[in-house]
Amino acid sequence: MSQRRDSILREMGLAPLWRVRGPVDLNEEAGAVVLEPPKEAPPVPPAAVASAPSSALPRPLRSVLPAVTSREPESMPPVGLPATSSGVGELDWDALEARIRSCEACGLCRRRKQAVPGVGDREADWLFVGEGPGAEEDERGEPFVGQAGRLLDNMLASIGLKRGEDVYIGNAVKCRPPHNRTPDTAELAACFPYLQRQIELVQPRLIVALGRPAAQALLTQEIRIGAARGKLFTYGSIPVVVTYHPAYLLRNLPDKAKAWEDLCFARRTMQRLKAEDGTPRST
Ligand code: URA
Asked: In ligand 1, which atom is closest to the CA atom of 142?
């Protein structure tokens, strides 16, 4: 292993837990390595489709994976339903970011230093969605620049990705919740049209939901990460993979191995999507 890849895996707390199986696609530059997780969640039988309401559906222009779609049991109540929002669906990038920066749709605006719209490649295949800005993000106006952000960068690197290169990073809410508390359902709903529009503009092939609030906002259903991992959900027709939030992983180091499994699953899904689309395989 290269020193760089070693240190990435060490940073994720994974180095001793993984072994290479089968063909290895090494990308030393990006620090990427294709490793099989020791155990993978069993395939989920095809089930119900599209968990997002029709009003939340993006206009996908790219082909998407037709295969496995899953949802939690029907009894779980939907959460994070999108609020009505005047004209957000028509905004271009600049207008959208301006609207987010001046938004007063919920109480989070009162204590923010600034809103944090999102960052990265606006035509990315990968969209990562977090929960909401923390103190450093509130200060700097960019998502995931604090400690959790450094772990996210390492997580990205471990599957050959880099912030800003074919990756867009956004949050379920764009303003910092006081004391970094979890955003409530009303706040998620008020902010959802912005995420919805970002997805329409980026048209990602795959969305990775980081943590429960992001997953619930996107999937409009109650989610437990432990149960949702390893399943492929959909937002409209875009596949969604759910994994732990980096801040959670910083507090629960053993679960980093599970996050690694989830990232490998996401990467394999992306490879399949690209293969089906006829696009040459990279990441
Ligand atoms: N946690 C998040 O969910 N988003 C950020 O931008 C930073 C930390």
From this structure: 6
Q: Of ligand 1's atoms, which has the minimum distance to the CA of residue 210?
A: 3
The pLDDT mean for the chain works out to: 79
**Spatial distance between the Cα atoms of 283 and 281, rounded to a whole number of angstroms:** 6
Q: How far is the CA of 176 from the centre of ligand 1 (A)?
A: 9
Question: Amino acid letter at 154?
Answer: N
- Cα 270 to ligand 1 centre (Å): 23
Q: Which residues line ligand 1 (CB under 6 A)?
A: 130-134, 137, 143-144, 148-149, 171, 247
The residue whose two tokens read 């990265």 is: 120
How far, CA to CA in Å, does 263 sit from each of 3, 4, 125, 252?
A: 21, 18, 15, 17
Catalogue all structural domains in the chain, each as residue range(s) with its CATH number. 1-36 (no CATH), 45-276 (3.40.470.10)
Neighbouring C-beta atoms of residue 3, cutoff 10 Å: 8
CA of 130 to the centre of ligand 1 (A): 5
- Is 0.70 surpassed by the pTM of this model? yes
User: Looking at residue 66, what is its pLDDT?
Assistant: 30
